Amino acid sequence: MGKIGIFYGSTEGNTEDVVERVKEALGDADVYNVDSATAEDMQKYDILILAASTWEIGELQEDWESFIDVLDDVDFSGKKVTFIGVGDADGYPDTFVDAIGIIYDRIKDSGAEFFGAWPTDDYEFDESKGVVDGKFLGLVIDEDNESDKTDERIAKWVEQIKGELGL
Ligand SMILES: Cc1cc2nc3c(=O)[nH]c(=O)nc-3n(C[C@H](O)[C@H](O)[C@H](O)COP(=O)(O)O)c2cc1C
User: Fold this and answer.
1) Rounded Cα gap, residues 134 and 65, in angstroms
2) What is the DSSP track for 78-143?
């Protein structure tokens, strides 16, 4: 078992692909699709990356929609949690990567410690629930408009979180 558990939901495969690339860069991580993951799966990890795309204008990806209640059964105390949000800033500038903000809202008072916040400077959008205290809650990827930046964003963010986690 790896040190880090990555839990993702993905409708068309974009988030799945991003997660695989993050896993490769991290080296030591296990990946679960939330369409079949359980609270027990999540409980095993001290470090969690929750990855989701946003759909239906500001809504959770559909598998996350079903999975989010499972988070209430996880004891987050002592866990370090970050996010990967995949969205379309051009098509949905007012709800850009909202899904990660919705997930964060559910666990923000759970005792989890959040890490991996990421600057918004390199992105053009108007509103996002994925921004807290002026930063994204984690890595943000836009495969619809800026897939040419994805490799660099993943590399930089993974380097950042390895530093934060002392890995
Ligand atoms: C009908 C529809 C609604 C969408 N709504 C949003 C949205 O509100 N915010 C956002 O950032 N992206 C939105 N997107 C873009 C998707 O999140 C984006 O294409 C993402 O890469 C899909 O990832 P997935 O294949 O992992 O599900 C929407 C896309 C579609 C087709």
Assistant:
1) 26
2) T-EEEEEEE--TTT-TTSTTHHHHHHHHHHTTTT-EE---B--TT---S--TTEETTEESEEEE-T
Into how many domains does the chain fold? 1
Ligand 1 pocket test: which of 14, 50, 83, 88 has the largest number of ligand atoms within 8 Å of its C-beta? Answer: 88
53 CA distance to ligand 1 middle (Å) = 6
User: What CATH number does the domain containing 88 carry?
Assistant: 3.40.50.360
Ligand 1 interacting residues, C-beta cut-off 6 A: 10-15, 53-58, 61, 86-88, 92, 95-98, 143-144
Each residue of 77-105: pLDDT tens digit? Answer: 999 999 999 999 999 999 999 999 999 99
Report the alpha-carbon distance of residue 32 to residue 3 in Å, rounded.
14
Site to probe by mutation for ligand 1, drawn from 92, 94, 127, 143 as the one with most ligand atoms within 8 Å of Cβ, is: 92
